[in-house]
Amino acid sequence: MTQTHWNDVGIDYDKVLGTDASNVALLSAAVDLLPRDAKDVLDIGSGTGRLTSMVREALPGSEIVGIDPAPNMVQAAEEKFADDSGASFTGGTVEDLSQFADNSFDVAITSFALHHLELDTYDKSAAEILRVLRPGGRFVNADQFCRVMGPAGSPERALDVLDLLTAKARHYLLHASFERMLLQVDLLPRFMREDGEILTTPEYWADALSRAGFRSVTIVPTPPEELMNRVIWAEKP
Ligand SMILES: C[S@@+](CC[C@H](N)C(=O)[O-])C[C@H]1O[C@@H](n2cnc3c(N)ncnc32)[C@H](O)[C@@H]1O
Question: CA 181 to CA 170: how far, in whole Å?
Answer without folding.
Answer: 7
